[in-house]
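Input sequence (236 aa), recorded before submission:
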Amino acid sequence: MKKIFNSKEELAYYFGDLLLKASQEKPELYIALSGGSTPKAIFEVLAKDYAKSIDWTKIRFFWGDERCVAPDDTESNFGMTREYLFDHVKTRGVNIFRVKGELEPKKALEDYIEQVDDNVPKANGLPQFDIMLLGMGDDGHTASIFPHQIKLWNSSATCELAQHPVSGQNRVTLTGSVINNSQRIFFLVTGSSKAEKVDKIINQKGNYTQYPAALVDTNKTVWLLDNDAARELSNK
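Predicted structure, token format:
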């Protein structure tokens, strides 16, 4: 399923309304966030127009992936979320479960596996998030599972340690079994640089299964796209 918006802001308001409704329906809401420019735009709208309408104390925040950097590093997904969302809404520190990227990578991995396994409700023998937010890179990666390490998708572990294909930077990422066990999955994809992969994956063209983003459960997934990201889709 896909929804196409005229701008990041329009997409952000759609997601804000969705999150408001979801938070009203459950006593606790477990969400895995993603990094990138699109979530940043969403967080800005949430902080500005949903700070009071959403009961932020009901939401348990996790991340689908994180770079192995300190929380105040400019590349930290947590740091970006704190700056654009947490600092502006009444959430609780005990409900924020971040990857401790300042630790040695294997320690950060072990710690986050423990946090997820101990704090996220289980279904089908696995942690189950209510909402999983995913981005997609120009190369078709999602979370921090890149095409050159696509085997990590099928890992039996909750999380794995991944490496960026160019920089070699270590990252902690949820694996495919946990991502696909989520109740609802949303791809947040904007920009013309993503258009080719969006078309290949949604329309299952050619060798699309080489892209980790293509392995996400299509029955649970909604693609939230702007016009630029959707411009090559032949069946809008």
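Checked by second reader. The CA atoms of residues 19 and 54 lie 8 Å apart.
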